[in-house]
Design goal:
CATH superfamily of chain A: MetI-like
Structural class of chain B: alpha/beta
CATH architecture of chain A: Orthogonal Bundle
Largest sheet of chain A: 2 strands, antiparallel
Strand order of the largest sheet of chain B: 6-7-8-3-9-10-12-11
Helix content of chain B: 25-40%
Strand content of chain B: 15-25%
Number of domains of chain A: 1
Chains: A mainly alpha, B alpha/beta, C mainly alpha
Order of helices and strands of chain B: EEEHEEHEHHHHHEHEHEEHHEE
Largest sheet of chain B: 8 strands, mixed
Oligomer: heterotrimer
Order of helices and strands of chain A: HHHEEHHHHHHHHH
CATH topology of chain A: MetI-like fold
Chain lengths: 297, 324, 324
């Protein structure tokens, strides 16, 4: 009879209830879900595909919001300097931002958590080595490392994701290691070891699930941070190429004409980006409040 | 002569998530000018909370729920903070247990003493400083003119406590509340501090409430003793009587467990069991579960009974034996 | 103290070594070094000559050795674009960036400390929740977007402040700085605020956490027991206690602020190191990028060291050592 150290499903119920006590957090969660849906179904919702050159008309460029062009399309949020419908461009940009943010977050979690767990479980020299690297990575501001990597690697979605993963994994490694170190000495790990389970099974099957709470909190806020970082890099012209739409790029495009009074090209994507990041951060912050004291076992 | 401090029916409760903690649940005692009262009890008996209540220093989630505390006839319970602030440090001073954290680590002693003076009197800084140096000298700090410029961590434990006592003396208060002032110190230093305090009390006529868990210490310095258990005073009287002829079984137990009182080689006496949590007290005498003389009648709270002159005990059958 | 310094020095060297390795590998070993180091429009003859003079036909180890040797003597290559030693370019721009960074930190502290203090002293109030949510907004707003909004509102909308460039500089205490002229200050306000908003959230949260940790401590209670006003306790005792940890953390952030100045400088066309770097990356001026990375790493380490020393200066316990 094996004792499976898997968290019972009812453990999350009180967490959820306490989470919902904050109206702000619930609102933020709604907004995130909405954005996620918009991003997933973007191509179907958007009136036009702003990156399909046959669909845009240069003559319609720089139209303010709520304008209708003689050809028919209704530009809810105006057009940019190439004639792209802002609303559609923002939807596509949202897609890319979320894609980059979430995938880099997930990959960073996989890498960071694995290394953190290994460091905590193996201890000794392995632990010291991994932690040295972690400290080194965390000593540098994210933007610098990202800049460095992109300067070397060049532009492109995969390269941006890679750079963001490199920048983020260390946070997860450090947090997981801390939790894992205290979990490592608990009885269920003893029990699993005495059952002769392989190390891999113990680390990933038993230790990992119980170290997840801080990972969830940090993960949420890192996704927000990654989205912000990607936008910043794109704005500086170092992130995604022009062919891949990004909210940062849109804002960058609009920057030059903003001084001429064409505010909508920069401001709307900016508001969208801001709302997205803000909402994710509120959810993450609330999660942190709710999960932390619970960790006292 | 009216009493300096009169406490009647004081109840201080803490409203926590886990429930209501009745730290002090109805205590009475009286203190006259120049007297030293020893407030004795284990941890959790409510003695520290009682002394903080006098100064109104109970932080939320606690508050004084009921009762009266009269200082020189003035009611302190319900008094506005501005009035309490006037009394604190000037008429009633306090000495805490661990001077390391009591004195602000990042400020010099000088700063802390001068501000205490200036909080209650408008004098020049120089005058305040001189007074501080004088009072440091009185408590036995050598070369106080130099030492006053030091930081708390630069003093040894015993010296720090002397500084704390000095601060208490700055305004020549009528009452000093000493909360376990020697508990954190070495035994040899303890003796010094106690002697110091005795001298001060004799010289200045300051009244003192000495809170402690150590009956042996209290024996040397107190005129009267109040024994607290689970938030109530279970025995109160002149120290010679309470210690010489304890009436409450708990007091007897405490006295028996003092190491110096047992013959060498004989097993140390202990009071069996543990102090109850004041969160969910069972009705009746709180000491009953541990009392060697427990009877069925102890299921009801025993009233205060007069044993002798100014000596009371909350016990149905107070002891009358004499201790050797 | 000397052991401490020596250990730090060794750590510094280790990190510099590691970074130089990374930079070297990144720029010299990835791809064809010749293509990377030479401008794209070099002719074949120039290419061959350059390869030989740069030692690119030597084994990598030798190249690394050359790289290090040059780096130590201050030669980090010449910029393709400006045809000047890259190190000279970077150091020329450094004061502008430093000025911006320091102003930003100053603004963050001046605004953040009182807000964090208030939030820490009044937990659970609407104002506190508003401040905390506001601080989340602070680090949610992407830096560049904040900058844009600042320009939109204050420069274009209200026309109060200029939106780009560094104003006139003058000489103050012998240093060229924007603070010496009103025009200089006007140009500094928006970019410094932009950079500050980013760290403001951190200062607020940090101060609040420190205050919440410090208020329950004994010395706060003792201050009240002495009759000190809340204002004095918070304003002097608590503030001085939390100063050391806060300043330390903020100081460490100086490095990060200098790095993030990259974005601010791009938006506001501030002639600092950051703008140079972005332009260099875009123009493939690799020697400048390499030089920047090394300079910045060295800077970080220096900042860390200075902050550590600052902490010992601020906390008398560390500075004067404890005596038990």
């Amino acid at each position: 009879m094996t004792e499976e150290a898997v968290p019972a499903p009812s453990r999350w119920r009180p967490v959820w209830q306490e989470f919902c006590e904050s109206k702000t957090a619930v609102l933020a969660l709604w907004i995130c879900s909405l954005m996620l849906l918009a991003a997933v179904f973007g191509p179907w919702i958007a009136p036009q595909n702003p990156y399909d050159l046959t669909q845009i008309s240069f003559f319609d460029s720089r139209l303010p919001p709520f304008s209708t062009s003689p050809d028919g399309p209704y530009y809810l949020l105006g057009t940019d300097n190439q004639g792209r419908d802002m609303y559609s461009a923002m939807l596509y940009g949202l897609r890319t931002s979320l894609l980059v943010g979430v995938s880099s977050g997930v990959l960073a979690i996989i890498l960071g958590v694995s290394l953190g767990l290994v460091a905590a479980y193996a201890g000794g020299g392995v632990d010291a080595l991994i932690m040295r690297i972690v400290d080194f990575m965390l000593g540098f501001p994210t933007i610098l490392v990202a800049l460095m990597m992109l300067a070397i690697l060049g532009q492109g979605v995969e390269k941006v994701i890679l750079a963001l993963v490199v920048v983020q994994w260390a946070y997860f490694a450090r947090a997981v290691r801390a939790t894992a170190l205290s979990e490592r000495n608990k009885e269920y790990i003893e029990a699993a070891r005495s059952l002769g389970l392989s190390h891999t099974r113990i680390v990933f099957g038993h230790l990992a699930p119980n170290c997840m709470p801080p990972v969830i909190v940090i993960g949420t806020m890192q996704v927000a941070s990654a989205i912000s970082a990607e936008a910043t890099l794109s704005f500086l012209g170092l992130g995604l190429p022009i062919t891949e739409p990004s909210l940062g790029l849109l804002i960058s495009n609009g920057f030059n004409v903003m001084l001429a009074g064409l505010y909508w090209i920069s401001v709307f994507p900016g508001l969208l980006l801001l709302t997205l990041i803000f909402a994710i951060n509120i959810v993450g912050d609330r999660l942190r409040e709710v999960l932390n004291p619970r960790n006292a076992k | 002569m009216s009493a300096l401090l009169e406490v009647r029916g004081l109840k201080t409760h803490f409203y926590t998530r886990a429930g209501v903690v009745k730290a002090v649940d109805g205590i009475d005692f009286t203190l006259n000018a120049g007297e030293v009262l020893g407030l004795v009890g284990e941890s959790g008996s409510g003695k520290t909370v009682a002394s903080f209540s006098v100064l109104g220093l109970i932080d939320p989630p606690g508050r004084i729920v009921e009762g009266s505390i009269k200082f020189k006839g003035e009611e302190l319970v319900g008094s506005p903070v501005s009035r309490m602030r006037q009394l604190r440090g000037r008429d009633i001073a306090m000495v805490f247990q661990d001077p390391m954290m009591t004195l602000t680590p990042v400020l010099k002693i000088e700063t802390q003493m001068i501000e205490t003076v200036l909080a209650h009197e408008t004098v020049s800084r120089k005058a305040a400083r001189d007074r501080s140096i004088e009072v440091l000298r009185r408590v036995g700090i050598p070369t106080p003119e130099d030492r006053i410029g030091a930081y708390p961590h630069q003093f040894s434990g015993g010296m720090r406590q002397r500084v704390a006592i000095a601060i208490a003396l700055l305004h020549a208060p009528a009452l000093i509340l000493a909360d376990e002032p020697t508990t954190a110190l070495d035994v040899t230093i303890q003796g010094q501090i106690i002697a110091e305090m005795q001298k001060l009390v004799a010289e200045t006529g300051t009244a003192m409430i000495w809170v402690s868990h150590d009956l042996a210490v209290v024996e040397t310095i107190a005129d009267s003793v109040a024994v607290m258990y689970a938030g109530r005073v279970v025995e109160h009287g002149p120290s010679a009587n309470v210690i010489g002829r304890p009436a409450h079984p708990y007091t007897e137990g405490l006295l028996n467990s003092i190491p110096s009182r047992t013959t060498p080689g004989k097993r140390l006496n202990q009071i069996p069991g543990m102090a109850p949590s004041v969160l969910n007290l069972a009705p009746g005498c709180p000491f009953a579960p541990r009392c060697p003389y427990e009877q069925p009648a102890c299921a009801k709270i025993p009233p205060a009974r007069n044993i002798g002159p100014k000596h009371m005990a909350r016990c149905i059958t107070p002891l009358t034996r004499e201790l050797t | 103290m000397t052991v401490f310094l020596i250990r730090r020095l060794l750590q510094t060297l280790a990190v510099l070594f590691a970074v130089s390795l990374v930079v070297f590998v990144g720029l010299y070993a990835v791809g064809n070094p010749a293509d990377i180091l030479l401008p794209d429009d070099a002719t074949e003859v120039e290419r061959q000559a350059a390869i030989r003079s740069l030692g690119l036909d030597q084994p990598l180890i030798v190249q690394y050795g050359l790289f290090l040797k040059n780096a130590l003597s201050g030669d980090l290559g010449r910029s393709f674009v400006y045809n000047e030693p890259s190190i000279k370019l970077i150091l020329a721009r450094f004061p502008a960036t430093l000025e911006l960074a320091l102003s930003a930190l100053f603004i963050a502290m001046v605004l953040g400390f009182p807000l964090g203090l208030y939030a820490g002293l009044h937990p659970g109030t609407r104002m506190e929740r508003a401040i905390m949510t506001g601080s989340i907004l602070g680090f949610s707003l992407p830096n560049f977007w904040q900058g844009l909004m600042l320009i939109l509102i204050f420069s274009i909308g209200l026309g109060w402040l200029p939106s780009s460039g560094r104003g006139q500089t003058g000489s103050l205490f012998g240093i060229e700085t924007s603070f010496a002229t009103w025009d200089g200050i006007r140009h500094l306000i928006l970019p410094a605020t932009n950079l500050a908003l980013f760290k403001l959230a951190l200062v607020i949260r940090l101060t609040r956490a420190q205050v919440r940790e410090t208020m329950p401590l004994d010395f706060v209670k003792f201050g009240r027991a002495r009759g000190l006003t809340e204002r004095r306790i918070v304003g002097v005792h608590v503030a001085k206690t939390i100063a050391a940890p806060i300043v330390t953390v903020i100081g460490m952030e100086l490095g990060s602020v200098i790095a993030f100045a990259v974005v601010t400088e791009s938006i506001f066309a501030w002639p600092g190191m950051g703008k140079l770097i972005i332009d260099s990356i875009n123009r493939l001026d690799r020697p400048v990028v390499a030089a920047y990375l090394l300079v910045i790493t060295f800077l970080f380490i220096l900042i860390n060291l200075v902050v550590d020393l600052l902490y010992t200066a601020l906390d008398p316990r560390v500075r004067l050592g404890g005596k038990s």
